[in-house]
């Protein structure tokens, strides 16, 4: 054998020797696609390839983000040791001991000077159930503060609060995805699943192949609306009115299920009276949707034997998001299309653990298992699980954005931030940024120096989805086990371990004595027992064996719950609560004016995830969209003298940004669209108002008014 051949074989052997295979779940959206990552070391370089693994929800599918997710986890910018900001304003490596000492010193000082509630905790929906649960306990017991909330406030709060009020329980999907193909009519309201949950699409494609009629509601044409048979191109923010139009036709054409209404609901008479008080013409005028189209949508939905409604952030991220969702639920209830096969509701959950993250206590008014922090019995129960007195559990705090206002006002002077980038994702972002700069001490737990972490005094390195084991609850309400098999890089620690260590230095070690992540899950099971989101019957062993279990699962012989509400809703009388919904929001939304003449709406593109901290690091994704843009109709663009592919200044009452124009006839002429994946001078949240939904404190990310003009740089 020649030297060359020998070398070749030796190298090949080396390759095989160093191949490692990791099973995991995609860290991004709520589909939670199962992924296998193969890591090969070729001489000194590592090569990765990812592929989908079969499971009941995604059946082996993965999208472009999942296939490329590992890039950020192995990125050179990843933080792998604690870093403190020095006098020079730069971050410097320090030891864990030193980091924990700094936290103890600063947090103790803040609470001594400014009071216990001067410290705040801000979490995220990508945390595992175990970390999300522990973060709630950490705030209340570890730091003894009432101020905790999380980014899910901007994501799930409208749908969650509507579900809880109408049905008495909030699980994203009332039925499993496997029922979609048999549903005859499907309404997709304010959701762009084609870009945001791509691996869900085959369920809908199968429904279409079976003859389903799909109705999409969106101010823009998207990959999702293109699949629809009918697209109601609504004006931003008018979903409550539009759904009232549909409801009016259903009731007045007698396309309702009277026995279902009588036996299973309350409040129908008020809804009937309400829809008689306006005309379809008024609805058509305010929503920009033709009367005939509203009628068609209602007739199709009302006449079908089965039907399903999905909503997402287009409907929900509004200052009347809670009520708008309630009105879509009114449509389901008057037609009796819930609690049955191939019928039901789905709030398309957003983040990896958008579902589990909202169940176990990261929310300011919530204790584990969806218990209420204001209910004395619930407090008592959780106090017993935690081994404290109920008086040791602080009361209700405020929502995510309101916490930022308290920071700005100087009432909150310290913050522990885990898994969010709030200066990019909050509305009224300039105020949020200025506020966070004033904090006496900000600790950020993040894999990267995000725009917010940049402002921190201390950054702690967490593990990524490849290393961190735990459970996450997908959009169906299916609790899945993520393996976390890769070796931890550098000195990174799991989020839950970081919480235990900080609690220890704050003198609360006895409440945080977990050896493994499974120990936390076992405590969560007990804490959730008897609550709305009951996980008691799940164990790691059962979850692994069944490839996920749908909650509620109240005992260890229970199979989990595929379909909700077959016999009763979860209110004490077993009935669902209907309620009339006003066409006009109680908190006025911005309408176009002479100064700010077009609607601005915001959202996502397929290649990027949220504030882009992870996906902007991935060249395969970033190459698809490396900067922000404004989607604008050519006639609107001409009116404001904006050329295609040119820089545009967008101004609102709050501020201005500069992005590139993208002419498109897909969007309404009175509306522009800007994604929110970029920061600094392209951060669209600098334009978004501070007003919140009065019921659930959701900001109005999807409706504001702006001016657009060509950007000419001053040199
Ligand atoms: N690629 C990608 N996928 C993601 C994410 C991501 O950042 N990138 N994020 C994940 C998360 S956390 C979430 S919450 C989900 C979000 O998933 P979606 O809610 O589907 O995403 P958005 O793009 O925010 O908004 C959906 C649609 O609402 C439309 N819309 C805007 N205003 C209105 C309105 O007033 N009424 C109606 N009816 N529609 C309107 C927009 O044009 C858009 O097409 O996606 C998840 N998946
Ligand atoms: N204008 C506008 N604004 C919006 C929205 C919109 O549609 N329009 N949507 C809103 C919605 S739905 C959402 S969900 C929010 C999301 O907004 P953010 O909460 O800001 O979300 P991310 O950009 O995902 O920030 C997560 C950060 O946590 C880090 N991270 C990721 N995984 C982990 C982990 O496991 N542990 C730790 N410790 N860190 C981790 C990432 O590196 C990143 O820096 O934005 C909201 N803001
Ligand atoms: S982003 Fe969502 S759909 Fe795409 S691979 Fe990840 S979990 Fe699946
Ligand atoms: Mo979200």
From TrEMBL:
<dbReference type="InterPro" id="IPR009010">
    <property type="entry name" value="Asp_de-COase-like_dom_sf"/>
</dbReference>
<protein>
    <submittedName>
        <fullName>Molybdopterin oxidoreductase family protein</fullName>
    </submittedName>
</protein>
<dbReference type="Pfam" id="PF00384">
    <property type="entry name" value="Molybdopterin"/>
</dbReference>
<dbReference type="InterPro" id="IPR006657">
    <property type="entry name" value="MoPterin_dinucl-bd_dom"/>
</dbReference>
<dbReference type="InterPro" id="IPR006963">
    <property type="entry name" value="Mopterin_OxRdtase_4Fe-4S_dom"/>
</dbReference>
<keyword id="KW-0004">4Fe-4S</keyword>
<keyword id="KW-0408">Iron</keyword>
<keyword id="KW-0411">Iron-sulfur</keyword>
<dbReference type="InterPro" id="IPR006656">
    <property type="entry name" value="Mopterin_OxRdtase"/>
</dbReference>
<dbReference type="Pfam" id="PF01568">
    <property type="entry name" value="Molydop_binding"/>
</dbReference>
<keyword id="KW-0479">Metal-binding</keyword>
<dbReference type="InterPro" id="IPR006655">
    <property type="entry name" value="Mopterin_OxRdtase_prok_CS"/>
</dbReference>
<feature type="domain" description="4Fe-4S Mo/W bis-MGD-type">
    <location>
        <begin position="19"/>
        <end position="77"/>
    </location>
</feature>
<dbReference type="Pfam" id="PF04879">
    <property type="entry name" value="Molybdop_Fe4S4"/>
</dbReference>
<dbReference type="InterPro" id="IPR050123">
    <property type="entry name" value="Prok_molybdopt-oxidoreductase"/>
</dbReference>
């Amino acid at each position: 054998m020649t030297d060359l051949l020998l070398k070749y074989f030796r190298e090949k052997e080396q390759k095989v020797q160093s191949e490692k295979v990791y099973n995991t779940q995609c860290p991004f959206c709520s589909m939670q696609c199962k992924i296998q990552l193969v890591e090969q070391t070729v001489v000194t370089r590592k090569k990765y390839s990812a592929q989908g693994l079969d499971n009941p929800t995604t059946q082996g599918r993965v999208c472009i983000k999942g296939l490329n997710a590992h890039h950020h986890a192995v990125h050179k910018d990843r933080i792998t040791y604690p870093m403190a900001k020095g006098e020079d304003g730069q971050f410097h490596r320090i030891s864990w001991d030193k980091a924990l000492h700094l936290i103890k010193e600063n947090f103790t000082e803040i609470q001594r000077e400014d009071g216990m509630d001067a410290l705040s905790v801000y979490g995220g929906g990508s945390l595992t159930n175990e970390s999300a649960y522990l973060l709630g306990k950490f705030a209340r017991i570890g730091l003894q503060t009432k101020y905790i909330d999380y980014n899910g406030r901007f994501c799930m709060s409208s749908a969650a609060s509507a579900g809880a009020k109408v049905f008495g329980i909030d699980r994203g999907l009332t039925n499993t995805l496997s029922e979609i193909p048999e549903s005859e009519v499907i309404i997709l309201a304010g959701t762009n699943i084609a870009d945001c949950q791509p691996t869900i699409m085959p369920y809908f494609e199968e429904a279409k192949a079976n003859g389903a009629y799909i109705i999409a509601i969106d101010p823009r044409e998207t990959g999702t609306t293109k699949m629809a048979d009918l697209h109601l191109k609504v004006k931003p923010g008018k979903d409550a009115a539009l759904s009232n139009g549909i409801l009016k036709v259903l009731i007045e054409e007698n396309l309702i299920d009277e026995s279902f209404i009588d036996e299973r609901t309350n409040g129908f008479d008020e809804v009937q009276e309400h829809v008689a008080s306006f005309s379809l013409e008024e609805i058509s005028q305010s929503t920009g949707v033709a009367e005939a189209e509203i009628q068609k949508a209602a007739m199709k939905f009302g006449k079908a034997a089965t039907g399903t409604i999905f909503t997402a952030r287009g409907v929900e991220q509004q200052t009347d998001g809670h009520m708008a969702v309630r009105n879509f639920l009114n449509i389901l209830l008057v037609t009796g299309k819930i609690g049955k096969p191939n019928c039901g509701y789905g709030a398309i959950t957003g983040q990896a653990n958008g579902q589990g993250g909202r169940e176990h206590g990261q929310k300011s008014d919530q204790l584990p298992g969806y218990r209420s922090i204001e209910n004395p019995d619930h407090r008592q129960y959780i106090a017993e699980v935690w081994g404290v007195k109920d008086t040791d559990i602080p009361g209700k705090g405020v929502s995510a954005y309101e916490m930022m206002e308290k920071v700005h006002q100087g009432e909150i002077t310290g913050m522990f931030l885990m898994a969010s980038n709030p200066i990019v994702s909050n509305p009224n972002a300039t105020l949020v940024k200025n506020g966070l700069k004033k904090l006496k001490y900000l600790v950020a737990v993040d894999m990267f120096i995000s725009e917010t972490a940049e402002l921190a005094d201390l950054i702690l390195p967490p593990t990524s989805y490849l290393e961190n084991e735990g459970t996450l609850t997908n959009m169906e309400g299916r609790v899945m086990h993520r393996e976390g098999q890769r070796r931890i890089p550098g000195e990174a620690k799991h989020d839950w371990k970081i919480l235990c260590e900080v609690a220890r230095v704050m003198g609360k070690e006895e409440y945080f004595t977990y050896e493994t992540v499974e120990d936390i899950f076992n405590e969560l099971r007990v804490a959730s027992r008897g609550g709305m989101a009951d996980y008691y019957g799940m164990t790691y062993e059962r979850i692994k064996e069944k490839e996920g279990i749908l909650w509620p699962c109240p005992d260890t012989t229970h199979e989990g719950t595929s379909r909700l509400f077959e016999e009763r809703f979860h209110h004490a009388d077993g009935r669902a609560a209907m309620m009339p919904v006003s066409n006009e929001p109680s908190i006025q939304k911005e309408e176009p004016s002479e100064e700010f003449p077009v609607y601005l709406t915001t959202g996502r593109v397929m290649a990027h995830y949220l504030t882009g901290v992870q996906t902007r690091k991935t060249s395969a994704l970033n190459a698809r969209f490396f900067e922000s843009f404004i989607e604008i109709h050519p006639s609107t663009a001409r009116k404001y003298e904006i050329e295609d592919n040119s820089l545009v200044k967008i101004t609102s009452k709050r501020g201005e940004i500069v992005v590139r124009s993208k002419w498109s006839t897909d969007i309404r002429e009175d509306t522009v669209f800007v994604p929110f994946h970029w920061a600094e001078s392209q951060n669209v949240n600098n334009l978004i108002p501070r007003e919140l939904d009065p019921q659930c404190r959701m900001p109005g990310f999807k409706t504001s008014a702006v001016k657009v003009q060509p950007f000419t740089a001053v040199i």
